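Quick question, first post here. What does this chain look like in 3D?
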Amino acid sequence: MKKDSKFLVFLVLLAALCAILATAAAVLPTVGTETVLTSGTAVSSESDTVTISREEYEQLMKYQELEEILQIVENYYYQDVDVETMLQGAAAGLLAGIDDPYTFYYTPESYAEMWEDDEGEYAGVGIQIQADYSTGLCTIIRVFLDSPAQEAGLRRGDILVHVEDIDVTAANLQDAVDIMRGKVGTPVAIQVMRGDQLLDFSVNRAQITVNYVNSCMLDDQIGYISFYEFSGSCSEQFEKQYRDLESQGMKALIIDLRDNPGGWVNDAQKVADMFLGKGILATLEYRDGTKEYYRTYDDETDSTIPLVVIVNGSSASASEILAGALQDRERATIVGEQSYGKGIVQWVLDVGSSGAGMQLTIAQYFTPNNNVVHKVGISPDILVEMPEEEVSEMFELGDLSDTQLRTAYEYILTLVP
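> Answer (accepted):
Ran it through. Tokens below.
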């Protein structure tokens, strides 16, 4: 969930400390600045005196130890250091101290890269990865069609072990992703665990265009839309492909949210608006107990078409918001396995003036019937576990040998008028 807010956080405070707290470390040389406590703030252009309020002084003193460390390093470390990189590391550490895997700092480079990903075009190998922060494992949940990864033989279900010289874990997955990006045509070494086998691949990077939505007719009545992620222009793609299926005579629709890790809540809201009248999509609850309601606003434009939604253990976040709302408001039948259980939402914020950013968990959300999602997930109406031999199978779009899709198809046939 994006919020166009500007926050002056840790980096700004440290920068202010460099100018104000000159006597922070007793073991270090002072720089001749005097701090005076008053009820206001003033800076004299003719002296080194800075006048600040007691409240401001006490706020700055919280960071005295970090300023002391910075001065010690700058003065005594045996080589020159990149202070900007140190400050970025300190900002990242500040957020890491919350111990929330969904709250973190973006360097200017990684922030720009994140928005590039959201647009769906980048130079890479063409895989989607899900990190499990409880086990540390990073699993490939999608190999893009016609991608270098597919050509090299990587599969859904493969666990990333090494990317070049990095031992891949959930904690350093971004570093591995950064390495897989690069110049088109150059190779990257990737090692995966497949079952009990370690397999090595050399994958040539290429320009990747992500298709967030794919669709087809399963027969002359049943439409099928596979929805991979709530990013970029996904909601527009969804509606366009939905209308195309309508023109082909669709009388019922299966929406496949398996392995969809979520994304922007606004996109889930736009898709829900196509099938739900005015009402609650999800309820957000903030730390102080206040609540905010995400709603659907349109009249039901497609209120009668039968819907089935497929989910699995990798359906998360915005996927669960959409599935939970369609289920609670009795608009769709959910088929598949218990979903992931990411029932919290984040802001993505610009930070400072260098192009950096941060992601911050700001609320927990609940379904329209006030059901808990976080660490619980959405329970399917029709439980269908994927057979072990199909878990890593790369099915063609709409392949009814896929057990979960076939079950959804057989059920929705009973709903067609």
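Residues 1-39 have pLDDT under 50 and may be disordered.
The radius of gyration is 25 Å.
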